[in-house]
Design a protein that fits this description.
By secondary structure, the chain is an alpha/beta fold. It has two domains: about 130 residues, Alpha-Beta Barrel (TIM Barrel), CATH 3.20.20; about 120 residues. Helices cover about 50% and strands about 15% of the residues. The protein has 14 helices and eight strands. It has an eight-stranded parallel barrel with strand order 1-2-3-4-5-6-7-8, surrounded by seven helices. Strand 5, helix 7 and strand 6 form a beta-alpha-beta unit. It is globular, with a radius of gyration of 19 Å. The two termini are about 25 Å apart.
Length: about 300
């Protein structure tokens, strides 16, 4: 399989335990955010990252906990409206959150994702574009001086609704930094429930093909649809994906086989789950004809 498994900490009840188990299973990337684990996820990861310097880590900027919003408001970083909705891509907040995440993680983040930029409070498209450009400018500064390794965009609906695409993001980064930009990755939901990116890739276009052509890594989030997907799959559906698979393995193999996907984010603290997932992703990727058949059936 060309894609590898990474730990996604969004749904982890015990982030430290999940990270310990994932690292023991061979995971080399952990994805988190300042608002995960009720604001404790980054801090919980610090000892694991210190003990395993080879592990790479990505975090995000945008959403915040109520406590962080109060802290930023008191410090004059946020306006009251943004503190109220607990989401901001304002340059002062992006800069403040990057340094806060470095402190919590105990090290430099390898990638900082702009978290659901489609959630920004600006009403007009022009205002949203201007805010995104200014946030990219801060991230470029941080990458250029070594504060972060690079940056990306993590979105739930930004690509699927057409709010932006890879070409638009590249155009923005080139406006700010030219060809030597530090845009490294995008993150979006890809699963048997969210198959649109795979369908588009099978047709030769879309976000996955665009990212692949641009050398941008794709992180597939929610591959099990919040843990609900395996129970939704019939034996016939599992067999369509491949022989001898569990429902969870079948669900994971599809995004892991999609063109351009580099990392599939799995949230689990169960060693057996990780063993099964690693076994699934050690198999050869699904060939394009099978992936098309699966897309045709599940996207119908």
């Amino acid at each position: 399989m060309t894609a590898t498994l990474a730990l996604g900490t969004y749904r982890c009840r015990d982030v430290a335990l999940a990270a310990t188990v994932a690292v023991a299973a061979g995971v080399e990337w952990i994805d988190t955010a300042p608002n995960y684990g009720a604001g404790t996820a980054e801090r919980a990861l610090a000892p694991i990252l210190a003990a395993h310097p080879r592990i790479r880590v990505s975090t995000k900027v945008g959403f915040m906990t109520r406590e962080a919003a109060t802290e930023a408001l008191t410090a004059g970083i946020l306006h009251r409206r943004e503190a109220g909705i607990r989401h901001s891509l304002a340059p002062k907040f992006v800069r403040w959150q990057i340094h806060r995440s470095r402190s919590e993680l105990g090290r430099r983040p390898d990638v900082v994702f702009l978290h659901n930029p489609e959630h920004a409070s600006e009403r007009s498209r022009e205002a949203r574009t201007a805010r995104l450009l200014s946030a990219i400018g801060v991230l470029e500064e941080a990458a250029a001086d070594g504060t972060i390794g690079g940056y990306g965009v993590a979105t739930w609906t930004g690509f699927s609704t057409g709010r932006f695409d890879v070409g638009t993001l590249l155009s923005m980064t080139r406006t700010v930094a030219g060809e030597r930009h530090h845009l490294r990755a995008v993150q979006l939901p890809i699963s048997l429930v969210h198959l649109e990116p795979v369908v588009a890739a099978m047709a030769g276009g879309g976000v996955l093909r665009d990212a692949l052509a641009a050398g941008i890594e794709v992180f597939a989030s929610a591959p099990l649809h919040g843990g609900e997907l395996p129970a939704m799959l019939t034996p016939e559906a599992v067999e369509l994906v491949g022989d001898g698979l569990t429902a969870a393995q079948a669900a994971l193999i599809v995004p892991a086989s999609a063109p351009g996907v580099c990392r599939v984010l799995l949230s689990s603290s169960d060693p057996q789950h990780w063993s099964d997932a690693m076994s699934a992703c050690a198999r050869p990727p699904l060939d394009p004809s099978r992936l098309r058949r699966i897309s045709d059936v599940f996207a119908a």
